[in-house]
TrEMBL record:
Keywords: Transferase. Gene3D superfamilies: 3.40.630.30. This is GCN5 family acetyltransferase. GO terms for molecular function: acyltransferase activity, transferring groups other than amino-acyl groups. CDD domains: NAT_SF. The keyword Lipid metabolism does not apply. Residues 3-138 form the N-acetyltransferase domain. It comes from the Bacteria. It comes from Bosea thiooxidans. InterPro entries: Acyl_CoA_acyltransferase, GNAT_dom.
């Protein structure tokens, strides 16, 4: 599989929805609204392509915090279920790695589902000492 990884233009966001919907239960309209809203804080969608076919998607955003310093955060990395184990996930991570370095970021952070942890560990990700906490407000 000859893969190309690049940022998606807003006109291509809709094409990412079938991939994202394999991970997130959102309507296409809500997905597009959320992506548009998140772009105001630097969020970008990145796609992995096999020719003209999109086979993987991830969101990336720059973050600067006191605790973690400047870092790139990966949101929702997902590869089409028919294209897993083809190198698409690794190609997306490689893109994020290069992007983080170009931006002068000190690390890449992401939230991982339990079944994806071995994949990330093979790519030199490690558990972070500070667990995330959540308090629902609704």
């Amino acid at each position: 599989m000859a893969l190309t990884v690049r940022r998606l233009a807003p006109t291509e966001w809709r094409s990412a929805f079938p991939i994202i919907s394999q991970l997130r239960e959102l309507t296409e309209e809500e997905f597009l609204r959320r992506v548009q809203r998140q772009t105001f804080s630097g969020y970008e969608l990145v796609g992995a392509f096999d020719g003209q076919r999109i086979v993987g998607v991830m969101g990336v955003r720059p973050v600067h915090t006191l605790a973690r310093g400047p870092h790139l955060h990966i949101d929702d990395l997902v590869v089409d279920k028919t294209c897993r184990k083809t190198g698409a996930g690794r190609a997306l991570i490689d893109f994020a790695d290069k992007e983080g370095r170009v931006r002068g970021m000190g690390a890449i952070f992401l939230d991982a589902r339990q079944e994806a942890i071995p994949f990330y560990e093979r790519l030199d990700f490690a558990f972070h000492a500070a667990p995330s906490m959540k308090k629902p407000l609704a």
